[in-house]
Every structure is written in C-alpha cells, then in structure tokens.
Amino acid sequence: MDQIAQQDVLGDVKPEHYFITKKGKTIKNIEELHNYMAVIDEQEFKHHVNEQRNDFHNWIRDIHKDQVLANNLLKAKTRVQTAMHIKNRMIEHKAQREAQKKAQEETETAMNHENVYNDQPPSSKHEKREHSTIKNMDYMKARVAEFAIGILFGATAILIYKSMA
User: How many CB atoms lie within 10 A of CB 5?
Assistant: First the structure.
C-alpha cells in the first residue's frame, strides 16, 4: 500500500482548507465528504463534478495530499461512485493506521523486556504478555539458529561427499 501523508488524512483539515459546497455546507474531512454524498442532490453534485472540473478531486489532491483517492475521484462520474471510492479509501487508511499501531506496540514490547533478564516474575497482566512475547521470540530465534546450523552441516557434508567422489 502506498505511503500516506504524515498528517492524519482522516482527521479535520485546518479551517482555511474546509471544503464549502455550492449550498454552503462545510466539509472538514474525508468522512464528512463521504457522508455528504448521501444527501447531495444531483444538481449540486454536477456543479462540483462535471466536464470542466472536479472540486472533490482537487480538494483531496491539494489539501489531503492523497493522490490515490484523488485519481479515483477523477474517474467517478456519479455521487454513488464518488462515495464508493471515498469509503474504500477510508477503509484502507484505517487498516494502515491499525497496522502501524500494532507494529509500534510490538516494537515497544520487544524493546521493553527487562523482566526476561532478571529473576523477578512479571507482575502485571501487560508485563506477563510482554514476558510471553519475549519468550516466544527467544524460542523462534533458537529454532532459526538450529535450522541454520542444520543447513551448514548439510552443505558441509555435501562438499565433503563431492570432494571424495
């Protein structure tokens, strides 16, 4: 998945960057734009999306800096298609945010492993989970090391066999 801009693309933009519709509705973020597609009438939609311009595309591209969504909105010709593209992209953003959050938690857990190296048992539920994670990581490292040693022995045996032949 592509890199998402550093800002929270699902959050509100600065007030000076709000999208103001033809009828005066203020849209602060991508989710509000998605919700607006359910209530916008066809005439107003055609005002914002037509052969000469695509205001939603421009706002997403220039303010939110989301080129993927902007390109998809450029292809959308109806409000249903526009809403679908926005919804799909919101799902992608949320999934990426969750994956980043999980990776950060796993990194913090791996770095915070004091209880593994001292004899004190873990005291809290969080520390017990961290302790278990570190033990599992140590177990996996040992299995990988055994596997690597096995490959080395096997390769050595093959070389010896070939040199004898």
Answer: 10
For 100-126, what is the mean pLDDT? 64
- The rounded distance, in Å, linking the Cα atoms of 41 and 49 is 12
Residue 58 confidence (pLDDT) above 90: yes
- Please determine, for residue 3, whether its predicted confidence score (pLDDT) is greater than 50: no
How many other C-beta atoms can be found within 10 angstroms of the C-beta atom of residue 94?
11
The closest of 50, 51, 47, 42 to 19, measured between CA atoms, is: 47
Residue 37 three-state SS: coil
Q: What is the pTM of this model?
A: 0.61
CB-based burial, 42-78: b 16+ in 10 Å, e otherwise:
eebbeebbeeeebbbbebbbebbebebbbebbbebee
Amino acid at 71: N
